[in-house]
Amino acid sequence: MSTASLLTAIKSLPEPQFVRVLGQMLAFQNRKRARQPSREQVLLAAINRGAPPRLLHEQRALIEKKRSQGLTEAERQRMIQITDALEAFNVRWLRWLAELAALRGTTAASLMRQLELPPRPYV
Fold first, then answer.
1. What is the torsional sign of CA 97, 98, 99, 104?
2. Engineering a disulfide at 37: which of 2, 41, 94, 105 sits with its beta carbon 3.0 to 4.6 angstroms away?
3. How large is the average pLDDT for residues 74-92?
4. How far apart are CA 38 and CA 120, in angstroms?
5. Alpha helices, DSSP H only, in the chain?
6. What is the mean pLDDT of residues 98-117?
7. CA separation for the pair 117, 109 (Å, rounded)
8. How many CA atoms lie less than 13 Å away from 53 in the CB half-sphere?
9. Which of the two residues, 16 and 40, has the higher pLDDT score?
10. Angle between helices 39-49 and 73-104 (to 10 degrees)
11. What is the pLDDT, as a whole number, of residue 23?
């Protein structure tokens, strides 16, 4: 059914039915909105999620191996890939933090204190 046909059908309803349909449509719209997280909620979830644990674990293992016995060329290349990925994640994290701070009308540093976020380590 097209939008025009639907509107024509709704307009032709007797007033009690029209009011009931309108109420149901508004309730549906409110339920749909309630299921959609706000931008602030999305940003906060992304900030709190942190870097991918798999990458952090692999990075720690390679750092330990580097300290104890050194890395092969393939491992050294993998370490560079992991470092690049973590640096890219940190850039995204800072963007999320800055956007959330702007939404809340504060600075990123102030927001970090409010959220009790530790300073980000250098990767």
1. positive
2. 41
3. 97
4. 25
5. 3-11, 15-35, 39-49, 53-68, 73-104, 108-114
6. 95
7. 9
8. 2
9. 40
10. 150
11. 80
